[in-house]
Amino acid sequence: MKAQRTTSEPRSGAEGTSASRAPSTAIRIESLRKDFGQGDVLKGVTLEIAPGEFFTLLGSSGCGKTTLLRCIAGFEKPSAGSVSFGGRDVTRIDPWNRDVGFVFQNYALWPHLSVFDNIAYGLRTRKRPQAEIDRKVREALELIGLPEIEHRLPGQLSGGQQQRIAIARALVFDPQVLLLDEPLSNLDAKLRVRMRREIREIQRRLGITSVYVTHDQEEALEISDRIAVMDEGAVRQIGTPDEVYERPADRFTAGFVGKSNFVEGYIEGEIFRSSGGASLPLPPGPRPDGELFICFRPERVEVAVGGEGSFAAKILDSSFLGSSVLCQAELEDGTVILLDSRQRRVAGESLQLRLLDCVFFPRKPL
């Protein structure tokens, strides 16, 4: 399966880090459980986040990702398990003593305070000298690219500007960890794309360990060093964007991250035979035995020039998406699959297709 971006191994955070900042901090979550009285919202989550890493918690609403983030921040106390920063157990430490910056989904700016006073709030509660407050607020405004608006009120700012102020407020006191809870969900689509890139650039420049919550798969794939895919309070897979997209660990991850085709059947030599009788020649590679699901991405199906190693399909519908054309096609047994034909197709058109890559999952419940 073809990844949507290429990424390196998790960054150490040393490159681009300001000399005045403290070293980046590792985070370890160990067997974390959270029960609000109606069953576990978090079910024994264990994961490690490297110093300076941009780590994303990805999942649908209600999967537990925000609860996990709030446990890391200290806003929620876990029912069991532990949270550690740099080897120090902070599980029972209050949020204001954890040295974390938190960016909320709704910005949470004080409407009656100026931009300067909103950003300075955390420094004043920590009783920093006024000269230091003035210097750090100016530095924070320069960091987010808004040096001239310190006297404005939040209501005089655009959504993107308000989000930048929320980020500046979270970073101004040099926290060990930056936590972001779906910070772009209130912005329009084009602004979300621009802002996520700006957030990533700020994180790279500072080298700060960051945990980012989102339900947007494209967003997670573009900006993350690594991703934890969550479902019903558990982590399904942890990996780089390439690993999660190209080699999903299970059917849930394959279906949640990007578009996938699933066809039930079994392998016979070099052919996958669907339960309905369709035959799909397989690409080279190891193959399991028994009844299973074959899984492949739409872009990993190509229109074949010749008939060898190909299978027949009939176009049902096509959608022009700008950079691609997503088609629905029917196999000989009536199974409907998605493919990226790279050009418009007419309903009823017969094609020969070839499978370029696939993964296999055992035939068992999700």
Main beta-sheet annotation: 6 strands, mixed
Q: Work out the helix count.
A: 8
Please name the fourth-level CATH homologous superfamily of one domain: P-loop containing nucleotide triphosphate hydrolases
Low-confidence stretches: 2-20
* Number of strand segments: 20
Helix % is 10-25%
Termini separation (Å)? 20 Å
**What structural category characterises the helix and strand content?**
alpha+beta
Order of helices and strands: EEEHEEEHHHEHEHEEHHEEEEEEEEEE
CATH architecture of one domain: 3-Layer(aba) Sandwich
User: What's the CATH C level of one domain?
Assistant: Alpha Beta
Order of the strands making up the biggest sheet: 6-7-8-3-9-10
β-strand percent reads 25-35%
Described by the principal axes of the CA atoms, the overall outline is: elongated
Overall radius of gyration: 24 Å
CATH topology of one domain: Rossmann fold
Short characterization:
With 366 residues, this protein is α+β, with helices and mostly antiparallel strands. Helices cover 23% and strands 31% of the residues. The relative contact order is 0.14.
What does this structure look like?
The structure is a single chain. The protein has 366 residues and is α+β, with helices and mostly antiparallel strands. Among the domains are: 27-99 and 175-253, P-loop containing nucleotide triphosphate hydrolases (Rossmann fold), CATH 3.40.50.300; 259-362, Beta Barrel (OB fold (Dihydrolipoamide Acetyltransferase, E2P)), CATH 2.40.50. It has eight helices and 20 strands. It has helices at residues 65-73, 115-125, 130-143, 159-171, 189-206, 217-223, 241-246, 251-256; strands at 27-35, 40-49, 54-58, 80-85, 88-89, 100-103, 177-181, 209-214, 226-231, 234-239, 261-268, 271-274, 279-281, 291-296, 301-303, 311-320, 325-331, 336-340, 350-355, 359-362. It has a six-stranded mixed beta sheet, with helices on both faces. The chain has a five-stranded antiparallel beta sheet with strand order 13-12-11-14-20. The chain has a five-stranded antiparallel beta sheet with strand order 15-19-16-17-18, with no helix packed on it. A hairpin with a 4-residue loop joins strand 12 and strand 13. Helix 2 crosses helix 3 (130-143), helix 2 (115-125) packs parallel to helix 4 and helix 3 (130-143) crosses helix 4. It starts with 26 loop residues before the first strand and ends with a strand. The relative contact order is 0.14. Residues 2-20 have low confidence and may be disordered.
